[in-house]
Amino acid sequence: MRILLVEPDVMTRKRLSVALSSGGFNVEAVASGEDALDLARSFEFSVIVSELNLPDLHGFDLIRKLRAAKIKTPLLVLSTVDHIDTKVAAFGDGADDYVTKPFHPGELAARLRALVRRSSGHADRIVRTGGLSIDLDAKTVELDGNPVDLTAKEYAVLELLALRRGRPITKEMFLDHVYGHLDEPISKVIDVYICRLRKKLAATSTGESYIGTLRGRGYVLREPESEPSLLAA
Question: Which band of pLDDT confidence, cut at 50, 70 and 90, is reported for residue 34?
Fold first, then answer.
């Protein structure tokens, strides 16, 4: 899951980035609202976390500008302000959650995962397709009751497929989700991860194909098929 973190304080920004990265998030951190707007307009994020007290504009202005630009990415406000009127105003402008500093990193991570799940249409933390189960909180995968051992990058690819189950995902979207725009490898690396995932899933199951290819559109997580029809294996 890729996070855009907007935090003006250098030490807080570094501490949050480390904590969220260790929790399995891919973090892009900036100090200003305008930088956040530029990134949110250019790249896709799973969730945005923003302080209200920004150096160039107020957090409410950032939220309003994001929503005016039709950016529907879920947004969590992280602030020292604990006034009910401020919280109500934040939700009214388009925020999806509000956490008051100080906070427990575990609670923040849990709230962010819940936001991403709900925005993707998943109420449960476990996404199931056929015999395949992906636990979005524990970051574990099972197939027909058997654990599937994946690398961090392989899991990140499967996670995005699970979050958007049934919808095609382009290589560019995978690269944003897994690497972020500052460290993009060649797009063929996604083909490598997809190939590895297919082999590991096939080795754990009876050979069903869970990841399909829509030519010219990308990859998709689908209900298992022994013999692919319109989708290429």
Answer: very high
pLDDT for residue 180:
67
Same domain, 172 and 110: no
Asked whether residue 86 carries a pLDDT value surpassing 60, the answer given is yes
For 100-125, the pLDDT digits (tens) are 998 888 889 889 988 988 887 777 78
We report the CATH number of the domain holding residue 67 as 3.40.50.2300
Which of 13, 81, 22 is closest to 49 using CA atoms? Answer: 13
Show Cβ contacts of residue 228 under 8 Å, excluding neighbours closer than 6 positions: 209, 212
Contact 28, 4 (CB under 8 A): yes
Query: Is the same domain home to 40 and 100?
Result: yes
Is residue 231 one of the residues assigned to a domain? no
Measure the CA–CA gap between 220 and 204, rounded to whole angstroms: 19
**The pTM is what?**
0.75
> How far, in Å, CA of 144 to CA of 147, rounded?
8
Strands of 97-100's sheet in order across: 26-30, 2-6, 47-50, 75-79, 97-100
Handedness of CA 116, 121, 126, 131 (dihedral sign): negative
CA distance 1 to 112: 9
The secondary structure of 116-152 as a DSSP string is HHHHTT-SSSEEEETTEEEETTTTEEEETTEE----H
Determine, yes or no, domain membership for 217: yes
Q: Are 208 and 224 in contact (CB under 8 A)?
A: yes
The CA–CA distances, whole Å, from 75 to 10, 19, 35, 223, 224 equal 21, 18, 16, 31, 34
